[in-house]
Amino acid sequence: MLLVGWTTARAQVVTTQPYFFRDNTPVTITYDATKGNAALANFTGPVYIWTGVVTNLSTSNTNWRYVKSPSFNQPDPAALMTRSATNPNLYTITFTPRTFYNVPAAEQILRLGMLFKDAAGNTVGRGDGGSDIFVDVFQGGYAARFTNPASGSIQFVTAGTTVGATANASESSLMELIVNKMFGTSGYGITTISYSTKLTQPGRNVFRLYANSGTNRVNDSVVFIVPPAVNTAALPAGTKDGVTYLSSTSVRLKLTAPGKQFVYVLGEFNNWQPGQAYYMNRTPDGNDWWVDITGLTPGREYAYQFLVDGQLRIADPYTEKILSPTDDQYIPATTYPNLKPYPTGQTTGNVSVLQTNQPSFNWQVTNFQRPKRNDLVIYELLLRDFVPQHDYKTLRDTLSYLQRLGINAIELLPFNEFEGNESWGYNPSFYFAPDKYYGTKDDLKRFIDECHRRGIAVIMDMVLNHSCGQSPLVQLYFDNATGKPAANNPWYNVDAKHPYNVCYDFNHESAFTKTFTKNVMSYWLQEYKIDGYRFDLAGGFSQVVKTDDASYAAYDQSRINIWKEYYDHLRSVDASAYPILEIFSDNAETLALTDYGLMTWGNMNYNYNQATMGYADGWDFSGGYYRARGLRQPNLITYMESHDEERLTFKNLAYGNGSGSYSVKERNTALVRDEMAAAFFFTVPGPKMVWQFGELGYDFSINSCPDGSISNDCRTANKPIRWDYQQEPARKQLYEVYRSLMWLKINEPVFENTSATYTQQLVNAGKTIHLSDPSLSVTVIGNFDVVPTSVNPGFQQAGTWYNYLTGATRTVTDPNAPITLQPGEYAVYTSRRITRPGVLATKSAQRNAFRLSAAPNPADATATLRYELATAAPVSVTVTNLLGATVRTLPATSRQNSGAHELSLPTADLANGVYLVRLSAGATQQTTRVLVRH
């Protein structure tokens, strides 16, 4: 016998006695732990009610006040439930609302809100769909309604089932029950009435209540539906998963749900009522359901859901837009104008949206050429923490900053619909819908189009290791008693196969999961022109059980096979799309994947940060070079920072080493060491990635809390957005170093390492990198210690070398003559002069173009300023500290001719530290730095 209920009311998770209770009279709450989300079903420990009231002063009809308990994770003796002696899943508690919650007499109690929990708050019983449970407080007057099943509910039963209904009135009444317009039963001077009957005919069977107190009359109804036989029909050709648009007035809906008994479509086109015209056909294999919907208004958005087996309402897993009953109200109209309202009172849970005659997006860039993999410099960012408006429109306006920085790809943290509004996005629920908290789908497309116009690729962080509880695929087959996917779920494992999983683990050996995953991959490439994916937790794509770091990283041929299959699919859709895996596996597995063409993440955060902090333990970052890991292809994307790693500058300032007056904890010193790390990062062949604001020395911890404290609980919390960093000279200097090194990497073929010779010595304090090809040789030297050190530069040949970042020249007679480097001192030398981006202004009568560099002269405590003038001009010099305070000026010279010049800058009376030297020639200025150490 099938007997399932569907209602927007209490769903019998909670019942009250009496049904119509006032705020000043006792009421008994009975909780059935097997209903709702059933997290406490068969629980043996004490159960507490976590409860509050909704009053006339609440901000919404779900806003609790006067919550009964000091803390959610602490037990409140007054909130302890009594377990039934005959049914261990029934719990009761009796109280008088006004005194129990201590609500002031002048405040009106409208509803009781409640959840049920264990003593520690770890196991929580909720209503259907995981929602809060609410019970209305009777406000007086006259009322009568069905109470079992609940008023307005629809029950689905099999033919031949005997069903009954009970109604209650708030005072003695004449009560009558009618079934399908036929008399059932009646009574006079009663407050309760019940009736039962056997149902045999398919379709709707309506129980109606007529109640009359003598002065008031009330009608109510409940519906029992006997589903008709399911029609078996092959899926019409051309049918897509989700919505297939047939015409401006019709669509075909398809849902994959093997083993289910029947499915209706509910929506605004049928007033959310199950009807024969919306009863879905089942395919012969029993896997898919489909139905055609006609009579739609062209261009109108329609909200809809699937009602599965008469009990479960889910949104379309393939929907391109959802409406949320909890999140949408907090999305500003400036972010998402004219957002369709949620159909409050018509249904529950997330709903899908379809729309015929959608206007097509007019792409401006149709021939975008993606950057070569070797040249990739990816900027990873979280939109929420990058621009205050957290929307694509503002991010598009910020592209000039990123383009000037020189990156050629942007990787956005997950932006398909995730749970809640503010999130990193790694809790996905809908895979084909952009999250509305960031803007409209057309805003996203305009952002991508503008990136492509500027030569910037867009990479989508995609989470296909797991889904969270709002996913329709999770909900379709879920075991409420265990709180896990059911064993027959076609897409998910009951238990995760690896220890890093969150939410619910996909089974990538399942044909259903493979089809879904491939559809997701195809969709964003085709619909949004995404340039590739960074696949989160790619190491979890295996059914081999992994219990710890070692087993997770161990060679796994099944995982290799899965990723090869997915990559083959990607190439069949878009051959040049970037396939980036977050996988930290055995080198042999990484070799197999990268040889096949897949790209992998290379986490070098610890090593680079040890070096910037000045600690010899762990400061070898040789592994940033793919060949040092035994890989044959430059498909290793290395990074010093990512969303998952601590920020370099924060650790420099918090934990940096020091010696004497030299301290990495001093801010300007910390930033200079970040520059040095960048010099040894961007010059290593292979694709690179930087995390947002790393180019400005972002110094808030990954675990920073909004109140300024630091806690692991705040890891994914909002972080300060510090565009003001651009106004600080030392941070601006770091930005310029990043910018110059990115430009060098992308524009000089030697860094692609196809025909170049590359060597590195990154073990000791004095580190070196050498690159050579027929057109250019590069030597990078730096001292990561906190005391001076001598380094053999190993220049590739004698002759003139050019300090790329300062413009200074160095005459080399002995390529191996040791160079003593001060702590934090570094240089990037090139065998031919290469102009940094933006250093030389356009030569004209109005602007003077020149290059400025400085070299210290310890012997007489001066610094030598070297510069070149394009046209004759007077020259003046100003020296400031890194806080912007002027400490020295040199009088303006008389008009100097064009060409090379030198000036001496006295430094004997300057304290140790870094100074900014600004040279002005006419209307043009250039700035360089001088490190003073006596």
UniProtKB/TrEMBL annotation:
Family: Belongs to the glycosyl hydrolase 13 family.
Pfam family, one: Alpha-amylase
InterPro entries with a match to the protein in the record: CBM20, DUF4961, GH, GH13_cat_dom, Ig-like_fold, Ig_E-set, Secre_tail
Stored SMART domains: Aamy
Name of this protein: CBM20 domain-containing protein
Domain CBM20: 243-365
